[in-house]
Amino acid sequence: MKKKFAVRHDIPGRLRIRALSLRQTETEKKLKERSENLEGLLWLRINPGCASLVLFYDKNKLSREDLLEFLNHFFGMDGVTPLKNPADDNPECVCVEEHAVRKAFSRFAAISVVMGGVLLRNAIFKTATLQTAFSPLGIVTFALTAPLIRSALKRSRERKFTLDGFLAAGSTAAIAAGEAMTALEILWINSGAELLSAWIAERSRKSIASILDITSHHTFVLIDGVEVERHVSELEVGDIVVLHTGEKISVDGVIVHGQALVNEAPITGRDEQVHRKEGDTVHAGTFVRQGVIQVRAEFVGDSTYLARVMHKVECALESRAPIEGVADRLAGNLVKVGLGVTAVTFITTGSAWRAFTVLLVMACPCATVLAASTAISAAISAAAKSRILVKGGRYMEEVGKCDLVFFDKTGTLTTTEPVLQEVITLPGIEEDELLTLACSTETHNHHPLAQAVVAEARRRGLSSLPHEVCEYYLGMGMRAVINGREMLVGNAKLLNMFDAHNSQLTAEFDRMSSKGLTVLHVFQDKKPLGLMGFASQVRPEARQVLNRLRAMGVRRIVLITGDEENSARQLAESLGIEEYHASLMPEEKALIVEKAMAESWKTMVVGDGINDALALTAADVGVAIGTAGSEVAVEAADIALASDDLDALADVYGLSQQTLGIVRQNFWIATGSNLVGVSLGALGLLSPVAAGLVHMGHSLGVLANSSRLLAFHKNDAQKSCNASENY
Fold first, then answer.
1. What Rg do the C-alpha atoms of the chain give, in angstroms?
2. How many whole angstroms separate alpha carbon 275 and alpha carbon 287?
3. What is the pLDDT of residue 81?
4. Phi and psi dihedrals of 258, rounded to 5?
5. Which end of the chain, C or N, has fewer beta carbons within 10 A?
6. What share of the chain is helix, strand, coil (3-state, %, to 5)?
């Protein structure tokens, strides 16, 4: 049977494929050897768990066709199986998490069966089980220790001595000394912690996947004057794509016919609807809010701006440096202390038996595996109950240490819908009268500003008046005839069309614009009646959340937004944010974050759109708020707030700090019992069997202490800020 591979991602200079044979160690080795002399291939990376291969190449020296020919020859096939839709490649790494859980469960179950069998035999038949190295139990236990030994040897070749090596040494020593059950206790606790961590990681991934609205994307292409439905993966450069109200734009291209209001917030972050007409450029990932347009595709699939941003996000995720975790640091301390104490015991007492007892006490993984993993797992579970999805233990650890937080504006600190914030009228016109006329004019308009007018009129209990004429001018406003009088509600373009002038309110218009408000003019019979200013509504909890973060240790808060200067400044001033950056593109946001990290700030980015994705991946911790927003942002973030409540950000920050406090307590619980056990063992007052009981005792203590995090609630986040300290 011929081997196959599929192209998962393909842009100039980079190719990613998936082939099941890559899971074989021999295949990986052969591929690296044969590709060494391939001119133009810069480097390759193989992920056996995902059966994935990423190749970076110099397109000036090595063409895509030549690279595929090399792969065809290597995998022994005549053609390439392309991916139907480049956007659907997310499931390729699902196998890693599921495989990790299955592997961890199998190991834990095997150890549990062996231990349970021995204990049951002893309880029923009242007979002791032989535990020597060459007894059946000893041989089985050594086989179960083999994975730790292999891991330790692999790390030793990298000149690293980790917890796996210490546990392997302790288990092997116990088996050699005829204490196979003690070795099984060590293995059982270690495998249980691994299973818990793998299960939490998979559950987090599945929770995130379940709330994402990932569907197959179709669009309509104009062929011989007829609209034909096509999958986006089938689009080609030059196709005329027809897009209607409410549809997502699937290509980068130029409008050749029609006009529409386009919501470009997913790309630019700006919350206003942009009027796009014939000759204008539109981007994939944006939405047609109102209107019908025909777009000639210039970039499709992996070549669109959205795809390029997603590619940069992916590269940032792949190149992110690993963060040393709490467990790793504690493991390093335990290894040093354990070896030192064991050696000192042997030197001072001359008793190998006492030294062995001390080694067994110190080999308990509680101080490392359980102290950190149980606390973090409990914290992730508690967060999930509050619809806070944490993608890994290290992010739960890191988020509470961040001292610089970058906030996006639209959809993060503000809602996405505008509200009427200010009304200016000329003498003789009351606010309610102006609002009634404006509402009557805008009744049939579905533009967000029009809906804000209608909502404010309803809030005040005002009723709309009947109209004889109602006309909508895309990107400009509305014209209506009410009680025989012509009404105009819209922007300056609408006034110019009808030759209306508003010189009487120029100063007020400039003042409102300088505050970052979007301003609509209200005219009656070509004469001005007043102005209405709109702004995105600030989340009611925003100021309180910022204050909570500052109280818990955040030293600097920065606003980074694609909105214009006036709008950004007004919001920053209203919320007491000292620093802001406006009119930013996605790459510029990421550069600002990277600059701060270079200055040794511990950074967190909070956002909700595609335009935030690069910054989310660049930061130490990325937080996506409101998973009804951008799928790209949720995938790029390390933490996803499934609710649209900004309070959850402060909650997870406080939960992280409380978790680190619990980890420290667990460490001292385990360390304290270890010190007592070491002292008794060195004095000859503790047998190896009793050392095993010490394992179980402080394991239960650590588990009980970590379980307190399961009861975490919002008030705990506020309380913890007064007592927390950086770890």
1. 32
2. 12
3. 41
4. 90, 180
5. N
6. 55, 20, 25
Angle, alpha carbons 85-301-287 (nearest 5°): 100
Q: What does DSSP assign to residue 658? A: H
Structure tokens at 532: 């209405």
Q: Is the pTM of this model over 0.85?
A: no
Alpha carbon separation from 457 to 20, 426, 445, 453, 462 (Å, rounded) = 62, 19, 14, 6, 5
287 close to 265: Cβ distance less than 8 angstroms = no
Residue 86 near residue 310 (C-beta atoms within 8 A): no
Task: State the average pLDDT for the chain.
Answer: 79
Which residues, in sequence order, are CB contacts of 694 under 8 Å at separation 6+? Answer: 361, 364, 673, 674, 677, 686
CA 464 vs. chain centroid, Å, equals 45
d(CA 346, CA 354): 7
- H or E stretch including 43? strand 41-47
User: Do residues 685 and 706 lie in contact, with contact meaning Cβ atoms separated by under 8 Å?
Assistant: no
Distance CA 417, CA 406 (A): 22
Cβ neighbours of residue 634 under 8 Å, at least 6 residues apart?
208, 211, 212, 624, 627, 640
Contacts by residues 351-358 (CB-CB < 8 Å, ≥ 24 positions apart): 351/684, 354/681, 354/682, 354/683, 354/684, 356/173, 356/177, 356/688, 357/681, 357/686, 357/687, 357/688, 357/691, 358/677, 358/678, 358/681, 358/682
Q: Quick one: tokens of 412?
A: 């993060």
Going by C-alpha positions, the residue among 222, 292, 296 that lies closest to residue 262 is: 292
Read off the DSSP letter of residue 283.
-
* List of the chain residues with pLDDT < 50: 1-3, 78-97, 208-216, 314, 316-324, 628-629, 715, 717-727
One DSSP character per residue, 115-168 reads HHHHHHHHHHH--PPP-STTSHHHHHHHHHHHHHHHHHHHHHHTT---HHHHHH
Residue 552: how many CA atoms within 13 Å on its side-chain side?
A: 29
Q: Give the closest residue to 271 by CA, choosing from 569, 636, 568.
A: 568
Which residues contact residue 588 at a Cβ distance below 8 angstroms, ignoring those fewer than 6 apart?
581
**Which of 128, 127, 229 minimizes the C-alpha distance to 179?**
128
Look up residue 434 and give its amino acid.
L
Q: What is the dihedral of CA 512, 517, 518, 521, to 10 degrees?
A: -30
| Angstrom distance (rounded) from CA 333 to CA 256 | 67
Looking at residue 280, its pLDDT comes to: 93
Please tell me the distance from the alpha carbon of residue 465 to that of residue 478, in angstroms, as a whole number: 15
- Please say if 408 is a catalytic residue: yes
Full strand arrangement of the beta sheet holding 6-11: 41-47, 52-57, 14-18, 6-11, 81-82
Give the pLDDT score at 560: 95
Q: Which tokens belong to 5? A: 């591979």
The residue annotated as part of the active site, out of 10, 164, 408, 638, is 408
- Written as one letter, the residue type at 309 is V
Q: Is-contact 687 357, C-beta < 8 A?
A: yes
Q: Please tell me whether residue 490 adopts helix, strand or coil conformation.
A: strand
Nearest-angstrom CA–CA distance, 175 and 170: 9
Residue 339 in tokens? 């070896």
**281: which 2 tokens?**
């450029």
Q: What local confidence, expressed as pLDDT, does residue 45 receive?
A: 73
Q: Please work out, in degrees rounded to the nearest 5, the angle formed at the alpha carbon of residue 142 by the alpha carbons of 141 and 148.
A: 105
Q: H helices of 515-630, where?
A: 542-551, 565-575, 586-598, 613-618
Using a 10 angstrom Cβ sphere, with 0-12 exposed, 13-18 middle and 19 or more buried, the burial of residue 537 is middle
Structure tokens at 308: 């390029």
